[in-house]
Design brief:
about 210 residues; mainly alpha; 3-stranded mixed sheet; two-stranded parallel sheet; about 50% helix; elongated
Length: about 210
């Protein structure tokens, strides 16, 4: 954007869809102000499959006057848009995205760490999944990630390297807010280790492999 902004007309809208991190968003908004652009912070929830089907959830923060203009774009990529603030620089959307991703990464690591001792203890993973089926411990995301691990099918929908980056941003945001996130920090280390093992481009379910040397 630093390179492109000079060619954009004043009043143009910069729709920022990445997970940039809490500290980065104000700097992006300041760059937008420098070039008289309207800044909208709009990270998304969802992975490759929902993205391809236009079924993401968009978390957005930006001035009301550009929302109708952006609606066709946001409707094309998402099944719904949740507007959280009139000020993109507030990082309200990014902060909520990190909270949501903290839960997603915790579920992924939990699935991996449930199946890892099953492997080590000689327990059939299907027995674990059958035991919790339909109860309060069961959930769709556990089923989704657990399906990949027994078959070692780590076709990426959300890669280990991306998860490692998001986990780092979550821990940094927590630290800046005075919140200690022990599970997130441990998860970030697992993703880092899985990446070092050569699984960075694979789906984040490959964090399972970080349990083994």
């Amino acid at each position: 954007m630093t390179a492109a902004a000079r060619a954009l007309r004043p009043g143009g809208v910069w729709l920022q869809l990445t997970t940039a991190g809490v500290e980065a968003v104000p700097a992006l908004a300041e760059l937008a102000r420098t070039y008289q652009l309207v800044f909208v912070d709009a990270p998304v929830l969802g992975t490759k499959g929902p993205a391809e089907k236009g079924q993401l959830t968009v978390l957005a923060a930006g001035p009301p006057q550009v929302r109708d203009l952006l609606a066709p774009v946001l409707d094309a990529v998402g099944q719904r848009t949740v507007w959280l603030s009139d000020d993109g620089a507030s990082a309200a959307a990014t902060r909520l995205k990190l909270v949501c991703n903290s839960w997603v990464l915790t579920l992924t690591q939990g699935a991996a760490e449930a199946l890892a001792p099953a492997n080590g203890l000689g327990v059939d993973p299907r027995g674990f999944l059958d035991a919790i089926a339909g109860g309060p411990l069961d959930c769709g995301y556990l089923r989704l990630k657990s399906a990949a691990i027994p078959d070692a099918d780590y076709t990426p929908s959300f890669s280990v390297s991306t998860a490692a980056n998001d986990a780092r941003l979550i821990v940094e945001a927590g630290t800046a807010a005075g919140v200690r996130l022990d599970v997130a920090a441990a998860g970030a280390e697992r993703f880092r280790r899985a990446g070092e093992q050569g699984h960075g481009a694979e789906d984040m379910a490959a964090t399972y492999l970080a349990s083994f040397d």
